[in-house]
Amino acid sequence: MTVSVGQPKVNKDYHSVVAPKNQTDKTESYAMARYAVVEQPQASYGTPPEFTTLKRIASRLQAQVKQTTRLTNALHEALTCVFTELATLAPNIAADWVLMMLMKYPTAKRIAAARLSSLTKIPYLLPEKALEIQNAAKRTVSKQSSELDEELIQDLVGELQHSLSEEKRRKQLLVKAFNALPKGPHQRIATIKGIGDQTAAAIVATAISIDRFETDRKLVGYYGIFPRELQSGVDKFGRPIPPGKKVMCKQGNDLVRGLLWQCAKCASAANGGNPEVRALYLRRLEAGDTAMCAWGYCMTKLLRQVYGVWTTDTDFDPEYEARRRAARQAAQQADRIKGKAETEVSGHKDVSGSEETGKVVTNTPASMEPVSHSDDIVHDDPSAGTVQAEVAPTAARPLIDFAELRSRISMADVLTKMGYSFRVGAGQHRGKCPLHDPSVGRGKPFSVNFKREVFRCFESSCGCQGNVLDLWSAYRKLPLYESALDLAKTFNIELPDQRRSSPRKKQKKLGGHTPPTP
Ligand SMILES: [Zn+2]
Prior knowledge:
Elements: H1 8-18, H2 25-39, H3 52-82, H4 86-89, H5 96-104, H6 108-113, H7 116-119, H8 127-138, H9 147-179, H10 197-207, H11 216-222, E1 227-229, E2 246-248, H12 254-267, H13 275-286, H14 291-312, H15 320-338, H16 343-353, H17 382-390, H18 402-408, H19 411-417, E3 428-431, E4 446-449, E5 454-457, E6 465-466, H20 468-476, H21 480-490, H22 503-509
Antiparallel strand pairs: 1-2, 3-4, 4-5, 5-6
Helix pairs in contact: 1-2, 3-9, 3-10, 5-9, 9-10, 10-12, 11-14, 12-14, 13-14, 20-21
The site of zinc ion has 9 residues, from loops.
């Protein structure tokens, strides 16, 4: 019999929902039992004994990182009273030279009175910067600078310096513990270009075993690294943020996130030795993302590479994906020569697997395909093959711009047409599946994301997923090409001809074929 170790945080949260106003042994045990019976949580993973030291050091390090953040914020706040302008002159207030300067000259008044020659004696403080800071200190708008303020700043600076050195020490300890682990596939992570020993150690200390993650997406999800679209707000300069601007989500393990952030910067550099991350970085910049956001995508990419080398127990190979792409292209070429692939259908299929969609291809070798992102690929229409065989490649059927057609019909339109009821205006929908026999399975397996215009059925015997076109195709039991024609006819849409525009460009612009949210 397996006994699951309860997670205190989850139990507590569940309890606060079940019995928000009482906290007795009775309500707590009821909440725990109810959680186990209703939610049926997966068995939790125990930590193998050889990993416990590493894990403990990692959590101590994480606590220290949090402490550093807290102190940095406190220093920022204290500085607004004594030297407001410093925040714009020193982007990183926790940098060594800033702390050293503040230890000696804690307020604007003291900096203004200091001799320039003694300011420039501080390591890494360049003469131009020192002059700039001193000039700002002379003109500062901050009024407060009593002796007490000075003492407070020095106190905070001292604590922050201590916290930073402690953080450094614990990072070294973490690497030591990582190197002391018994040999295993986790050691491959450090071979990825851009990921150092520290990050590899932190990832192993938090993930422990890669077997916990069925797919690379789950690993990425575990660390909570997603670009998120902003709808409102202002940036740090007070300028309104245009809607649709993307920032990185701030969830998940902040130790790993912070380390991966540095790794993404290294790996995306021209000499970073990680061509795939570099290429992704440039692609995101070209697509109009900020460097910050592009690095966010690079972090995701790095995690996928981690998944690849860890599951397959092979060293990182920077040329791996390029080779795989070439092989895929060669296979497609061969298909085309054989006349098997009909232009429009393969054109559509192409989109789902291509990188044009902004989707990242994993570093997972072909043998690992079932657990990598291949399950995200939506089209597996067995009937498509028969249609292809029936019709000659150059048949006079119109070429369909699938992306254009998709962009003109919404998921809500199609579901309404199918007579399926859902709440209008909601971003997400969960309910009965319109595509499989309702007597099979139970619950609400059918999930629709109206924002991304995708759907998915979680009933294993059904498993339908995709975009509007896939939905119509499954509903009408027609191959993709025919269902596109049928869909256009049903909604009275004049079918756009693919020949008029470059399909690839268009699909990129429209976001192409995105996989559904799990
Ligand atoms: Zn279904």
